[in-house]
Structures are given as C-alpha cells and as structure tokens.
Amino acid sequence: MDKNEAKKRIEELSVLLDKYTYQYYVLDAPEVSDYEFDMLMQELKQLENENPEFIRPESPTQRVGGIASGKFEKVPHAVQMASLQDVFSYGQVEDFITRCRNELGECEFSVEPKIDGLSVSLEYENGTLTRASTRGDGFTGENVTSNIKTIRTIPLRLDGAPEFLEVRGEVYMPVSSFIELTDQQELLGETPFKNPRNAAAGSLRQKDPGVTSKRKLDIFIFNVQQVAGESFKTHTDSLDRLKKLGFKTIPSYKKCHDFSEIKAEIERIGNERSGFGFDIDGVVIKVNDLSQRDIMGATAKTPKWAVAYKYPPEEKETKLLDIEVNVGRTGAITPVAVFEPILLAGTSVSRAVLHNQDFIDEKDIRIGDTIVVRKAGEIIPEVLRSAAHSEGSSKFRLPDKCPVCGTGSVRYEGESVLRCPNVQCPAQLLKNMIYFASKNAMNIEGLGESNMKLLVDSGLVSSPADLYSLKKEQLISLERFGDKSAENLIAAISSSKNAGLDRLVCALGIRNIGQSSAQLLCRKFGSIDGILSASLKEISSIEGFGEVMAESVYSALREPHRVELIERLRTAGVNMEYSGSENGDNRFEGLTFVLTGTLPTMKRDEAKKLIESYGGKVSSSVSKKTSFVVAGEDAGSKLVKANELGIPVLTEQELVERTK
After folding, report:
1. CATH code for 592-657?
2. Which end of the chain is more exposed for a tag (fewer CB within 10 A), N or C?
3. 395 flagged as catalytic
4. Closest CA to 287 of 499, 136, 97, 436
5. Which residues are within 8 A (CB) of 516 and not within 5 positions of it... i.e. 6 or more apart?
6. pLDDT tens digit sequence for 78-93
7. What is the spatial distance between Cα 171 and Cα 312, in angstroms, rounded to a whole number?
8. How far apart are CA 72 and CA 146, in angstroms?
9. Three-state secondary structure string covering 137-183
10. Could you tell me which CATH number the domain at 426-498 has?
11. What's the CATH fold of domain 85-310?
C-alpha cells in the first residue's frame, strides 16, 4: 500500500470507528460486533505505526495518551464557569419564577437533572478537540485533555462543526462503575471512595491517563459556553444542535412554562432518579431564551437566570437489630449494622458499615436503638446517628478476639481499625487467595472469586502455593469443571510462574504495597532474595517509599508464614528473579528519564514502556536527579529547564539507539 492509499484508508477507518464508538457508547445501539470493531482498530493502529506522519491528535487510537504529568497546567476560562444558586423548597422555586417574570414578562424555562459530578470545559477548533479543563474556581481550571480523551462518549472530532466551539459538561462515574471500583478497592485493602462524585473527581485528576481510562467515566454535555459562526435562540435549541454534532447531552431536558409544570417535572425526576444509572443531586431550572438571559445578567458568583433545586436528603428511622462483625483480607475487623429494612432512594436497604469502634463510640450506637439512616450520594447506606436508645441497652464493644478464628485482635499504632493478626484465619484465606490470582497480581485467567471459593471450600487449596500442585483430575471432580476448563486453568496457573517478580511481590498481599511499589522494590534489589535480605534503611531509601511502606515490607517478609510461602512458591518453580523485560536487560537501571514534546514515531506511553522495560524510570518533571530528557517537537518548559541544568537531551532515535 503506497502513502496515498494508506492516508485514505486511515481516514476511512477513523470515520468508521468514530461512528461505531458513538453508536456503542452514546446511543447504546452498536451496529457491529466487538470483534469487528477490534479488528478495524488493529488495522488503524498498524497503518499509523507504519505511517506515523498521518497520525492525528483526534485519531481513535489516541484515546489514552500521555504520561504521568505530576501537575496540571492552569487554564484561564474565557467564559466564566459559574456555579448556580441553590434553592431547597418549592416556595423558593416559585420566588425565582416570579422574579424572572417581573423582569422579563412572559418567559419559558428549561428543566433538567443536575448531575452530581465534576464540571469541565471542552474546546473544539475546526471540529477537533484541542483542550479540556476543569472548572476550578470558575475563572481558572486545570488542563486535563489527556485524561478527558479516555472518556469514550466524548467525540475527538466533530463533523460539520463551527470554526470554534466550547461546551460545558459534567463528568461522572456511572453507578455500576462506582460499585465495581469500590469492590476492588475493598479487596485490595484500600479506602474506597465515599460516593460517585468523589470517585469521578479523583479519577479525572489522575496523573496517569491509563488509570483514568480504567475508571470508566462518562459525561453529559449541558451548555454551550461560546461558539463562532453559529447562533442559537434558546438553550434547548443549542442542546438539540449539540446532540446532532455527536455529543451525549443532558438527558430529558424539558421546556416548561409555569410553576405547576416545573414542580411536576421536579417530582417526576425525583421519583425516577433511583432508576438512573448515574447520581443526581437536584434539578436545574433555567430561562430558556438566551437573549432574556442577557437581560437578567449575573452576580459576581451566579447567573440570575438559573437556580438549582436540591432534593432534601432522604433520611429514615429504623430499628438496629444487630451489629455483625466481619473480617477482611488484611485482617480488618469491621462492624456492620443490621437493621429492619427501609426504602431509601428507591431500593430496600438493611445493612450499613459502621467503620470502627471510634465511629460507634462517637455516635453511641447500641443494639436495639432507633437509628437514622440515609444513602451517601444516593448509593451507599450510612448510619447518621442514634435517635433513641432502647430500654436497658448497653454500649457496644468490638470483640477482643477475632470472631472467626479466636485470635486476639490488635489495634496497630496510627490505625483506627482492629485487626486479626492470624494470617491463617479462614476469613482472610479466601480473600487473600482471590487477590493472589487477580489481574493486579499473578493474573491467573479463569481463577476468579467463584472458582477460587470452590477450590478453597473443597479443601484442595489452603495456600497460594497449593495452586501449583493442582492436577486436572482433581479439578474435574468438582462441579462446573470439565476436561477443557480444567486443562485451561492448569495451563493458566503454570503460565503464571513466569508472571514476573513484581507481580509476585504484589500478590504476597503486603499492606500498602501495590503494583507500582512492588516494581520499585524489584528494580532496587533485583530478586526475592535481594528484597528479603534488604535492611529497613535500604528499603526506606527507595524514592517514593515512606517509612510506613518500608516498615510494611520489612516486617511482612519476616513473618514465618510469608517466608514459608515464598519458599514453597520457589520450589514450585515460580520466578524469583526480576528482569524488567523478557530479555533481562536492565541497562537503564538507576536512570531517570523525562519525556517532552511530540515524538516522531512513538507515543509517550510506548516510549515510557520502552524505558521501563530496560529498568529505567520515567518522571514527570525535570530536576537535578534527571538523567536524560527525551524531546520531540513542540518541547516546552521541560526542555528549557533541562538546558539550564545541563541535563543531556536525547532525540527519539538516540533513545532507541541506546537500547541496541
């Protein structure tokens, strides 16, 4: 295929993939199968790799780009991203409508759900997404373009768009994604996000767009900030136009003419919100005619032509029947309130986490109490307070022994939770086994929670090391396993022996040690024996490690059960040496690189992976510790700082040459 043919095919594929992405993520009506989509994407990637001069920033392949940025560039907003005045009663809504009519005469209103997320601006030049920024203080936000591109419902290119267009939208985390994320955080022993809004904000501001991509964020567009070459009479006209351009606009916006219609719409949305796949915290009421908005104007903080009606938090009283005590993967002993079922935000709830003894003491929660419960962020039930103690009630104390294995519970310095220190506790065993085989750890395909539970309950495994001695015949004897599925699982377990030392260290389940910190350990010490023999001071010297992390590693690897596990895994043939790459070449070990500008043939994440595969580290900022700066076109302040500090600057080609 010659260059002209390649360019034409790249353009064809880009248009097709944009179309199919819109159908799948916005319309929820895919026209092609996932396999067909993936094959077209692979074809496009191959053509772009062979013809890098034709790669465009808005290409479907550029959804996840960039590297850890360290900080976000400040962006001044040409049009203020104002907040809205909140109102909390129908009386206040009626007062707002009266004010509008007194000033404008007859007027129409747009009523729409208020998505509870993070407000952002998207700027398009000649139909291409050029910049995305957070609201910030309304006047200045942060550049989050790389992260925004990971959201599939955001078009990177618009057909038939005006010369310049800036729109405002709300980035949110769907309820299903939020539940999946918090379940994973709990499994990993991390503190889960409290509600979808916090999860969305934390995910969008990740330094690594790859992390943002995994969080499955979404967006609703709800306003035109500025536009060149087009004009709109009403707000709803502008939303109709944005929808035709391919944006996922705010759902169910409706034109209303008087208070009774607006009230009915507020009540309708309120009654139906429990069935939404996203979180809302109210309803926005806006004057629809844009020229009338100009007449009303704004205060220094809020427009006068709009208000946000906030639904009152739904709180209900119920009787606390019991406080269950559960034990997690890391031994955390967690109290859970069990109460008479109540209907909250459209669903029946009967349980809520009570966190720890301090929480129970602060609210003086006792079994038999009348308690007040609500849903935090309309998702997670939480106990707000005790409304009344039952006669003869007594203060609740968590047990001084593990409720599962009977081992004395402990509360470590600096922690608010009680823990069971017995790593052989049955309650911890299953969760630790699941974590060992998970994608973040040894990544054993086909060994999810249900299959692992089956293996543990059958008595075939009681330690991760037991997995490596499983036989096909043993699996076939279990329900749900046939010849093929048994063979596949045995093969997957065997393959995991070469998963990499960093994955193994992660899989050991050391508190505060995840994938990144496990990789840092392996790069520093090179083998499991090197890590085992390292002193606390040596571990603490790793850049990015604090005292808590270093102490966790040092202590955990001296616990007899972990030492025994490591030796059993070694005997089973699990890899104990760190290569950093398949060829075992660590020529960049100890070197820190900074990437800046647009490289001629490689994306930044590809350059980052290349450097890391040879044992190097990629940093987001230039300092005296930087070994090399790899610069491409349009390199900015990082290149200037490198020259000021006398740090060697490499081209992409020079970087590649150093790997040969």
Report:
1. 3.40.50.10190
2. C
3. no
4. 97
5. 544
6. 999 988 998 989 999 9
7. 23
8. 10
9. CCCEEEECHHHHCCCCCCCCECCCCCCEEEEEEEEECCHHHHHHHHH
10. 1.10.150.20
11. D-amino Acid Aminotransferase; Chain A, domain 1 (3.30.470)
Q: Is the pLDDT of residue 66 over 50?
A: no
For 48, 61, 167, 283, 488, the CA distances from 43, given in Å and listed in that order, are 9, 11, 32, 45, 29
Q: Which residue type does 420 have?
A: C
pLDDT digits 0-9 by tens, 307-362: 999 888 778 899 999 999 988 877 889 999 999 988 776 667 899 999 999 999 99
E-strand ranges in 557-616 read 592-596
Judge if pTM exceeds 0.85: no
Q: Domain ranges in the chain?
A: 3-62, 85-310, 316-399, 426-498, 501-571, 592-657
What digits encode the pLDDT tens for the residues 203-229?
888 877 877 888 889 999 999 999 998
- Look at residue 32 and tell me whether its pLDDT is greater than 80: no
pLDDT band at residue 67 under the 50/70/90 scheme: very low
Q: If DSSP states are collapsed to H, E and C, what string results for 513-538?
A: CCHHHHHHHHHHHCEHHHHHHCCHHH
Structure tokens at 613: 């595969």
Taking Cα atoms as reference points, which of 228, 224, 171, 176 lies closest to residue 200?
Answer: 171
Query: Is the model more confident about 614 or about 383?
Result: 383
Under DSSP, the state recorded for 54 is G
**426-498 against 501-571: fold identical:** yes
Span 408-424, pLDDT tens digits: 999 887 788 898 888 77
Neighbouring-strand partners of residue 383: 373
Environment class of 625 (CB within 10 Å of its CB; exposed 0-12, middle 13-18, buried 19+): exposed
One CATH from 1.25.40.10, 1.10.3720.10, 1.10.150.20, 1.10.10.10 for 501-571: 1.10.150.20
Confidence grade of residue 184 (pLDDT, cut at 50, 70, 90)? confident
How far, in whole angstroms, is CA 304 from its chain's centroid? 35
Place 584 in a pLDDT band, splitting at 50, 70 and 90. low
Residue 179 backbone zone (phi > 0: left; psi -120 to 50: alpha; other: beta): alpha
What number of H helices and E strands is found in the chain?
24, 21
CA distances from 446 to 165, 389, 450 (A): 47, 49, 10
Parallel, antiparallel or unpaired: strands 418-419 and 118-125 = unpaired
Class of domain 3-62: mainly alpha
Tokens of 601: 């043939």
- 316-399 domain in CATH 3.40.50.10190? no
